[in-house]
Amino acid sequence: MSRLESSEVSIQTLLQSAPSTPSWFGEVTVIAHYLRHLGVLSDITERVRFARRRFGHYDLTDFAVVLLGYAISGERTPEAFYERLHPFADAFMALFGRGRLPARSTLSRFLTALDQAPVEALRVMFLEDLLARPLEMQEQAGGLWDRQGTHWQVFDIDGTRQAARQRALPCTPDLPPAHRRLNEVCAPGYTGRKRGEVVRTRTTVLQAHTHQWIGTYSGAGNGALIGVR
Question: Considering Cα of 195, then 196, then 197, then 199, what sign does the dihedral take?
């Protein structure tokens, strides 16, 4: 350890690594607190069922909170999210009342095996919770008014494009037929300056004056913007 001192500043350095807390960890903490306080996590455990072998001691709630944290973090890929989260994995799962962070391979197997029934159950549960606690006690007309008193509803529609690489796959008589998982979500399209062979597009719709997300739409290829009236 070395130390530099002056009359105004004292700086200490250590050889041991001390990872900094991710910038999004505070937002995860607040959301986790409210989800536990409002009983949303317990509702997931009781109402959403997905029986599957080879997941060990994990259940659907463990994977749901990992995906929720990934969505809040804004990291580009699950791999980047796991790398930032790794030093604080136990603290992250403890925020949601869970024990251990599922490995990336376990999460991948879970998403591969997931069917539509638990996804629909989660959607219905979150929708019911949203309608049970509106943002305003009284319905108010949202929007913007110009100087002439005209009422405008303003939406921000943003489409993002992500290219994916498709490297050559081995093809020999002793191997099973090659199968690309990206074929289900990507398609050939305009990559621009992005390096890749196939493209996936996501379009989001945001209400400008309330900052509420109206919807998100994804599709293979270049996709198309969603018109809102």
Answer: negative
- What are the structure tokens assigned to 153, written together? 């509803």
Q: What would the two tokens of residue 19 be?
A: 């990872």
**pLDDT at residue 55, rounded to an integer:** 60
Residues 222 and 162 in one domain: yes
Q: Which among 184, 189, 183, 182 has a CA at the least distance from the CA of 160?
A: 189
128 and 29 in a common domain: yes
Q: Give how many domains the chain has, as a whole number.
A: 2
**pLDDT at 29 (0 to 100):** 93
The answer to whether residues 190 and 123 belong to one domain is: no
b/e string for 129-162 if b means 16 or more Cβ within 10 A?
Answer: eeeeeeeeeeeeeeeeeeeeeeeeeeeeeeeebb
User: 158 with 203: CB under 8 angstroms?
Assistant: yes
DSSP state of 148: T
User: What is the sign of the dihedral through the CA atoms of 100, 59, 128 and 117?
Assistant: positive
Domain identity same for 128 and 29: yes
pTM for the full model? 0.54
Range of the domain at 56: 25-132
pLDDT digits (tens, 9 = 90+) for 73-109: 988 888 999 999 999 999 999 999 888 898 888 888 8
The pLDDT of residue 227 is: 44
